[in-house]
Design goal:
about 80 residues, elongated, mainly alpha
Length: about 80
């Protein structure tokens, strides 16, 4: 789960999701026909933050932009 905000806001959002997990599973079991209802697990996704960090590092390096290639050059 990607949550935008401070670390405290992220943890608070995850705590609310975990607190409502059984309710959410109950709603899921009513809407999806399965023999067994899957147990929901939530995990904080920090890939957006890591991606921003990588882009900032690349920008700080000041590497020149690669020249765009035409479709004919790729053949």
């Amino acid at each position: 789960m990607g949550v935008i905000g401070t670390t405290e806001e992220q943890h608070a959002s995850m705590a609310r999701l975990h607190a409502r997990r059984k309710d959410l599973q109950g709603q899921l079991s009513k809407r999806v026909i399965l023999k067994f209802t899957p147990q929901l697990h939530f995990k904080l996704d920090d890939s957006g933050i890591r991606g921003d960090r990588i882009l900032n590092i690349l920008n700080e390096l000041g590497l020149p932009e690669p020249a765009p290639q035409s479709l004919d050059a790729k053949k």
